[in-house]
Amino acid sequence: MRFWEIDVRIGKGMLSIIICVFLVLSLSGCWNRRELDTFSILMGMGIDKAEELGKIQLTAQIVKPGDLKSEGGSDAKAYFTVQAIGDTVFDTVRNFTKETNRKIYLPHSQVLIFGRDIATEGVQKYTDFFVRDHETRLRTHVLVARGEAGKILDVESKLEKVPAVGISHLLKAQNATSEAIEVDLKQFICRLMSKTTAPIAPLIEISGEGEKETLRIPGIAVFKQDKLAGELTGGEARGLLWVIGEIKSGIIIIDCPSGEDKISMEIIRASSKVIPKIIDDQIYITVKIEEEGHIGDQECPDKLSLPDIKELEQKKASVIRSEVLASLEKAQKLNTDIFGFGEAVHQKYPKQWDDLEKRWDDVFPEIEVEILVDARVRRSGTLIESVSQ
Fold this sequence. Notes:
GMP Synthetase, Chain A, domain 3
């Protein structure tokens, strides 16, 4: 049935209504159009404890669209930061209007940073606003500052016009090389709502002074329920990424077979699987990790033979295993199930879980974990001789 024949079936009156609705929907305007120049567009927010007892201090980084478009030698900043103090997040966000004369607009926010004092005290009551507010961007990155969150937002980016965008790009770049983890607001809140899986977030701190001041991601913040419990750094942090399947790329440095000099192995792909078992009321976890990579560079004095390649694979597997073990030991010491072992047990043993969930704080630190690593060196097209030979 063609469009112009529709009146035969439903009548001319109904056809007129359909045409009117079609024309209204095709108009270029928007029923709920909001003039952005009447809002303060938020790019990043930091939450700290205020000096006044019982109050919080929010730092908002707000973009200036006019200066954002400017090119060339303009020294004008494309953003400004404002601070407000209040009793709750909602109350304090509303107080920003006293400083900006505009309502804060949340959908473009890139980062939400908790100051260390707030994280130590507990963050749950401060996340409630972001869950309830319909404008909140759930893809906003969540971080924990080593110090005050507000000071983090004061550090200018060397590459981006808006520091909050620079922080977002820093996280993405380091996540791509498995040096940091990206955690958005949705992921953070899901872990926060879990009765067993502990929340995590990347740490951020200021490095250097004056013109050399910059930001770095030194590790991962670990929470017990909603309170900061500790940190994972170095191999501990990457150990967590191996277990939860967040390894994207990266480099593993090992000794040459001769014991002299080093080889840099690039991670091409990696995957993991957590397998729980209950035997005689005892929980056992097996973590299987598969990794494949190739030689990034080598300083070895001798040509690498096939047995040498096998040895490199074993050494690489040993490094991965040690990183996972370091992460596991720290997590069990803090009694924080950052790996989601509890959820894995729940899915496989739903009947036993009701009892285990109540005792998980007693169970998790005592779980025996077997770490199996299959690390491969991709040989196809790989130069196995050093250029110096």
